[in-house]
Amino acid sequence: MPPTAVGLVGAGRIGTMHAAHLSLLAPDGVELIVADIDSARSQQVAGQLGARAAPSVDALFDMPLDGLVIAVGTAHHAPLIVRAAHAAIPVLCEKPLAESTAASEQVLRVIEETGAAVQVGHQRRLDAGYVQAKRAYENGDLGWLHTIRAITADMRPPPVEFIAGSGGLFRDCSVHDFDALQWLTGQQIVEVCARGSNNGDPAIGEVGDVDSATALITLDDGTLGSVSATRYNGAGHDVRLELHGSAGTVHVGLDASYSGVSAEPGFVFPADIPHRTFHERFAEAYRAEIRAFVQLARGEGPNPCPAAEAVDASRVADAAQLSLETGRAERVRR
User: Fold this and answer.
1) Distance (Å, rounded) from C-alpha 234 to C-alpha 151?
2) C-alpha to C-alpha distance for 300 and 315, rounded to whole angstroms
3) How far apart are the C-alpha atoms of 223 and 218, rounded to whole Å?
4) In the chain, what are the domains?
5) pTM for this entry
6) Is the backbone of residue 272 left (phi > 0), alpha (psi -120 to 50) or beta?
7) pLDDT tens digits for 176-218?
């Protein structure tokens, strides 16, 4: 059987991580080809991993590819996805599909018209804890849900220059929670009421964002939940989910590397070093995401995160950002 040729566009932080995970699949017949606008950078990353380097992105598309991983800036996602869709190349793209939901919907139409296989990088769907929580909910172990709590807390904020172009805290961070909740429950979030604050670097407020925010969400069956995010969780990187039901409760992310400590006398928890970045927190989920994509590209497995579902999570994030601005509860527009 010939090798599965997977091209990767973008040799930055995320791209290098994906490249490393793809290189681990070489014994399983995966051939990695790296391309970047900086050809020296792509050659360096490829050389370190024993992979091939394409001299340019155009040259990469001239090669016979079985799959394409897109790990460049958001502004470049849409044209690369469209180009791959028309070439019938399966794609794994970091979220979002485009710079706005409206633009993402245009890309989605191309995906649907061409029948392209496009997997979006919501890696929490591949995280063992989230998968187990979904299984518990679907099996009825929790009964009916009465409360949902989700949190995404970065240890330190990214550069203000990044925040200025991120679309806002809900679109940058909480969109992962919105996607995970809709995927896990099989329901849609129909309304959002959000509040935010700025107690950290004033520059974050000056570029129009908040450093901490919480959204009250309502699912289509009336179940309530809270989705919180912050750039300033100094204790460590903290991503958790709590599902409280009439028959049981399950916690995701409450492991030995949880960033909090117990205030109860005589109770020592956690027992390990807290995660510092999302790379550490979701290391195995990212590896599983790449394995799932290779299976999708080979026609041997399902799409763990179809583009349409990722776009719908972006619609929820839009409603949260709008609520933050208006101070009102906002319906999710679909």
Assistant:
1) 15
2) 30
3) 6
4) 4-123+287-305 (3.40.50.720), 125-281+313-331 (3.30.360.10)
5) 0.96
6) beta
7) 999 999 999 999 999 999 999 999 999 999 999 999 999 999 9
